[in-house]
Design goal:
With about 375 residues, this protein is an alpha+beta fold. It folds into three domains: about 5-90, no CATH class; about 105-190; about 230-375, Protein Transport Mog1p, Chain A (3-Layer(aba) Sandwich), CATH 3.40.1000. It has helices at about 15-25, 60-75, 105-140, 145-185, 195-225, 245-250, 250-255, 295-315, 365-375, and strands spanning about 5, 30-35, 40-45, 50-55, 80-85, 85-90, 230, 260-265, 270-280, 285-295, 315-320, 330-335, 340-345, 350-355. The protein has an eight-stranded antiparallel sheet, with helices on both faces. The protein has a three-stranded antiparallel sheet with strand order 1-3-2. A hairpin with a 3-residue loop joins strand 2 (about 30-35) and strand 3 (about 40-45). Helix 3 (about 105-140) runs antiparallel to helix 4, helix 4 (about 145-185) runs antiparallel to helix 5 (about 195-225) and helix 4 packs across helix 8 (about 295-315). The protein is elongated, with a radius of gyration of 33 Å. The chain starts with a strand and ends with a helix.
């Protein structure tokens, strides 16, 4: 039965990969194929001691490759597959000569590979930095970064940050390893290697972190979509975290409405409830959004964002700060068509916009009661 094994994390360290393959041979495993995702497929074989050597892929004709490999066979080395950018050769004879005995020839063979490897790593680092910047730029350009963050995008950005840091650290380690290998080859020294167990532990840790974050994002997406509800306001669960139209605008509530909808969305950082009522001719309308946020500093940020977005969107006539100790932060805003209350008490944030001629300052008791009840 074939089985997959994780490769060492140090992909550039061919001596380490060779030792890994040799250990698998002693354990009774023969390589079948290799994945670029850091694993190799092996099949059971007779346990024996083999020597493995990796050689960079060359730009050569098929005939030239066949001729070279025939020479390798005469030396006792058989092709054993391709591992990424390397061609793998195996040898069962401990007395067989090495593929390269001349340090200058070995350096020449590796020169192009090391140059490409370094270039690709530098390009990868630049792309990672640009990609990360674009991710956070889209956050701020949304106009509602706090709201979007609370809805669940925090996990996506966490994934972006962790992946970027992991990739950058991996690329930096690879660049250092490539530079060290190049210096050793130029000095005519055989490349040294690092600890195999430590490299495998790093590979397992990287996989664990990557899969853990992917699982977190998937679980969050399922929980967010699964918690979304929309229903007629008449079917919404009581009590509701808003002040009803009957209380703040009884003249509008007396009119027949075209729509009365309740929406609910829960995520790890906030429970969001929303009520929307209106007539298509806009003679009567109410919109209320309530959030119970997990952390107070995020509730403060959400309050400031809701206030700033409203001031940017509507033609404001007057903004009145609420001097009431029951609220941590609160304002009443008058526009030419609507009245709006935005308030925060602890971790609860309520925004309510209603089309009415009545002064919302007269309903501070109602707003305070809602915020206190839904802490």
């Amino acid at each position: 039965m074939k089985k997959r094994f994780l490769m060492p994390e140090a992909y550039w360290d061919t001596a380490l990969l060779e030792r890994w393959l040799e250990e698998k041979a002693v354990q009774g495993w023969r390589p079948v194929s290799f994945s670029r995702y850091g694993s190799g497929k092996f099949e059971p074989a007779e346990p024996r001691k083999l020597r493995y050597r990796l050689e960079p892929l060359r730009t050569e004709t098929y005939d030239a490759q066949c001729e070279r490999e025939e020479t390798y066979r005469e030396m006792g080395w058989e092709p054993a597959g391709v591992l990424g950018d390397y061609r793998v050769y195996a040898c069962a004879d401990p007395q067989a000569p090495e593929l390269f005995t001349d340090p200058s020839a070995l350096c020449l063979t590796w020169e192009r590979q090391l140059r490409l490897f370094r270039r690709h790593r530098l390009i990868s680092m630049v792309l990672i930095v640009v990609w990360t910047i674009l991710q956070f730029r889209s956050l701020w350009e949304s106009g509602q970064p706090v709201d979007v963050f609370l809805k669940g995008m925090w996990a996506v950005w966490l994934l972006a940050v962790v992946c970027a840091l992991e990739w950058l650290c991996g690329n930096l380690r690879a660049l250092r390893g490539v530079q060290r290998m190049r210096r050793q080859l130029e000095a005519g020294m055989a490349p040294d290697t690092e600890d195999l167990d430590a490299s495998l532990r790093r590979r397992r840790r990287q996989n664990l972190v990557s899969w853990g974050i992917c699982g977190l994002v998937a679980a969050l997406a399922v929980s967010v979509f699964g918690s979304q509800q929309e229903m007629p306001l008449s079917d919404a669960p009581e009590p509701l975290p808003y002040v009803s139209m009957e209380a703040v605008a009884p003249e509008a509530a007396a009119l027949p409405l075209d729509s009365s909808v309740y929406r609910e969305r829960r995520s790890l950082l906030t429970d969001h409830r929303e009520v929307s009522q209106f007539r298509w001719d806009f003679k009567a309308s109410l919109w209320a959004g309530f959030d119970r946020v997990r952390f107070t500093f995020l509730a403060e940020a959400l309050y400031r964002e809701r206030l700033a977005n409203f001031l940017d969107t509507w033609s404001v006539v007057e903004v009145r700060e609420v001097a009431d100790s029951r609220f941590d932060q609160a304002v009443v805003i008058d526009t030419d068509k609507n009245r709006c209350f935005i308030g925060r008490m602890g971790r609860a944030v309520l925004m309510e916009r209603v089309r009415t001629d009545r002064d919302l300052m007269d309903h501070l008791d109602n707003f305070a009661a809602v915020l206190a009840e839904f802490q």
